Amino acid sequence: MTLLERDIDFDGAFPAQTRPLRLGVVGGGRISQTQAMAARLTGRWHIVAGAFSSDPAKASLRGKEWQVDEARSYADFNTMAKSEAMRDDGIEAVMITTPNNAHFPAAEAFIEQGIDIICDKPLTNSLSEAEKLEQLTKEKKVVFAVCYTMSCYPMVRQAREIVASGALGKINQIHVEFMQDWMTPDSVADAPHVKWRLDPKISGPTSCVGDIGTHAAHLAQFVSCLKMTDLRADFHVCGAPKQLEDTVFMTTRYEGDVPGTLMATRLAPGNRGGLRLRIFGSLGGVEWDMESCEQLKLNIFGQPDQILTRGHGHGISAKTERFVRTGRGFPEGLIESWGNLYNEFALAVCARRDKLQVPEDWLGYPRINDGVAGVRFIDASVRSNSENGAWTAI
């Protein structure tokens, strides 16, 4: 039996599945619970296995909390990958939600077993590892999604369509920022979930840039349909002393010499999910703010300002409507955005297993190449900062 219905209308609503896909989990922290909630929201996934801790006793306990069969609650991801690949009812995909330094070995283990992957960002801590995963993904022909989840908000998809349509004219500048405040207190660095983010051995060469800066960089490129080509980066520690930066200011450049700015910080009191994108062109501009994620501001020069809102109709395209669950005025947010990512990921996994040829632009979820681009962005920012903010090619 195929996983997707036949005679799919690729311009219409997403097709139903004949059964839920079997999903595994590597990493049992807070973000894994958020993602699991979103995966379940879609009705396309059933979580059946996991490596929730490297401590066998904790792994067993966590498995019970996740309501996973004890025989499928593993103490390490290598054993999990090999064991699940041998089962007739083994997992068909795995979410990797570990700290950064484990992304590469975990992803490699599951790719080798032909298991599809959705991995948190940054993809890896080094460019060589990221490029190796990309090559392995091509060789094994697995589906590999990367969690640049902000690109899965409906109004972000609508913004991308508007830009691609040419409604803004020639793009002439791109500004993006991600402002948070949770690292403002000096004592926060002692929290277990924060310590690893400030440890270069685990987090990699950056903290703020690799965590939220990559979200900003991906969003700007996704909506503008332009690749970032060069940057100038200045890292800062604005709060208590830290091994890695908590703030970054960048000047950026995109294809066609389009200039821009990128700022990210965790020490901006009053800002929680302060991801904001502004793209301006010769005819108009669009603006989106994650804290007001249901709205998209559209300005065509010389015409009245427009506020588009998530829902059915009223200027929202049919493609964007595929991501809408509730009517206008009944809010959706981050969990639903995660759900949209898991929705598209499920369809990609089903299509691969059904050997179904699908249009290249049918699914817009972030792929392995987006993850590699994120690591290249990090690498360039580190090099630029080390050279006193010199222009650096990505």
How many domains? 2
Q: Indicate the mean pLDDT.
A: 96
CATH architecture of the largest domain: 2-Layer Sandwich
Number of extended strands: 14
End-to-end CA span: 45 Å
CATH class call of the largest domain? Alpha Beta
Largest sheet: 9 strands, mixed
Query: Widest sheet: strand order?
Result: 13-12-11-10-6-9-8-7-14
Model regions low in confidence, pLDDT < 50 over at least 5 residues: none
Decide which structural class fits the backbone: alpha/beta
State the helicity in percent bands: 25-40%
Order of helices and strands: EHEHHEHEHEHEHHHEEEEEEEHHHE
CATH superfamily of the largest domain: Dihydrodipicolinate Reductase, domain 2
| Count of alpha and pi helical runs | 12
Q: What portion of the residues fall into strands of 2 or more residues?
A: 15-25%
Fold and architecture overview:
With 394 residues, this protein is of the alpha/beta class. The protein folds into two domains: 21-149 and 342-363, Rossmann fold (3-Layer(aba) Sandwich); 154-325 and 373-393, Dihydrodipicolinate Reductase, domain 2 (2-Layer Sandwich), CATH 3.30.360.10. The protein is built from twelve helices and 14 strands. It has helices at residues 30-42, 56-65, 77-86, 103-112, 127-140, 154-165, 192-195, 200-203, 208-224, 318-321, 334-354, 368-386, and strands at residues 21-26, 45-51, 93-96, 116-119, 144-146, 171-179, 228-236, 247-254, 258-265, 274-281, 284-289, 295-300, 306-309, 392-393. The chain has a nine-stranded mixed sheet. Strands 2-1-3-4-5 form a five-stranded parallel sheet, sandwiched between helices. Strand 4, helix 5 (127-140) and strand 5 (144-146) form a beta-alpha-beta unit. Helix 1 (30-42) crosses helix 11 and helix 5 runs antiparallel to helix 12 (368-386). The protein is globular and about 65 Å long. 47% of the residues are buried. The model has no long low-confidence stretch (mean pLDDT 96).
